Each structure stands twice: as C-alpha cells, then as structure tokens.
C-alpha cells in the first residue's frame, strides 16, 4: 500500500496542501487530476519521498517512478518504459527475465504514437503477458 496520512507540504510560509490523507492498495491505480500549477507534481513527489513533508506521514511499501521529463536524450519505446517501471520488482542488482527482456518486437508498439492509449496498452501487454 502507498499513501499519505494527514500530510502537509509547505514552501516557506506558503502551504500547498494541508492534512491530506489517502491510500492506494497494492494492485490498484490512482489518478491525480487538476489544473496546471495546483500541486499535482508536488503531491506525487511528497508521496514518493522526494519532497519533505511539513507534517503527517507517508506510507510506501514499494513504488516505481519514471519521470515525464528527464535529462536523457535516449529514444525509448513503450516496451522500454514498461520494463523500467517493472524494475522495482527486480531488486538492487536484478535483471529482467529473458521472457520480459527478449520478447519479440510487436509492430503496434512502434507504430502507435508515443503516449497513446494503444501504445501503452500494447507495451504493457508485451512486457507482462496480460492486458493492462
């Protein structure tokens, strides 16, 4: 399970959010939605432990995180991103198993525009062997 309990985040005298509590059980998904500049990324950073809490506690067993923007100029396929997301289950020196790392390339992974639901679903299915 991952979540926050009565958590607050502040920058100086400005409090971004206060006394927020939620939990996401293992195997479930959650979406963080809202207008630009309202603290969605700060909430995610606080949840993952990248942003200190002014008060409250965070609960996190294990979480994988692939940032939207990075310093790398590498071009990654949808399958590459899914394998990175699964890396949290491999441990510190783990390697993807041959069925995950060497699955045959599926044309739909490369032909669908990056970020489209089709490419994400196909890549997830290719990596996990089931529909996501």
Could you explain the architecture of this structure?
It is a single chain. With 132 residues, the protein is α+β, with helices and mostly antiparallel strands. The chain has two domains: 2-60, P-loop containing nucleotide triphosphate hydrolases (Rossmann fold); 78-128, no CATH class. The chain is 30% helix and 20% strand. Helix 2 packs across helix 5 (117-128). The longest helix is centred in the C-terminal third of the chain and has 12 residues, at 117-128. 13% of the residues are buried. Residues 107-112 and 128-132 have low confidence and may be disordered.
CATH architecture of the largest domain: 3-Layer(aba) Sandwich
The multimeric state of the shown protein is: single chain
What order do the strands of the largest sheet run in, or round the barrel if closed? 2-1-3
Biggest sheet features: 3 strands, antiparallel
End-to-end gap: 19 Å
Could you give a short description of this structure?
This protein is α+β, with helices and mostly antiparallel strands. It has 2 domains: 2-60, Rossmann fold; 78-128, no CATH class.
List its salient traits.
globular; 132 residues; 5 helices; alpha+beta; Rossmann fold; 2 domains
Task: Tell me the layout of helices and strands.
Elements: E1 2-11, E2 14-24, H1 40-48, E3 55-60, H2 78-86, H3 98-101, H4 107-111, H5 117-128
Antiparallel strand pairs: 1-2, 1-3
């Amino acid at each position: 399970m991952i979540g926050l309990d009565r958590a607050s985040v502040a920058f100086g005298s400005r409090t971004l959010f206060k006394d927020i509590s939620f939990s996401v059980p293992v195997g479930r998904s959650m979406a963080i939605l809202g207008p630009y500049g309202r603290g969605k990324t700060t909430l995610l950073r606080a949840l993952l432990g990248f942003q200190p809490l002014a008060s409250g506690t965070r609960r996190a067993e294990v979480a994988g995180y692939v940032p939207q923007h990075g310093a790398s100029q590498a071009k990654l396929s949808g399958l590459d991103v899914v394998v990175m997301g699964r890396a949290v289950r491999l441990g510190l020196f783990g390697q993807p198993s041959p069925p995950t790392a060497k699955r045959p390339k599926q044309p739909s992974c490369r032909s669908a525009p990056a970020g489209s639901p089709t490419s994400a679903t196909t890549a997830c299915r290719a990596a996990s062997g089931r529909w996501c």
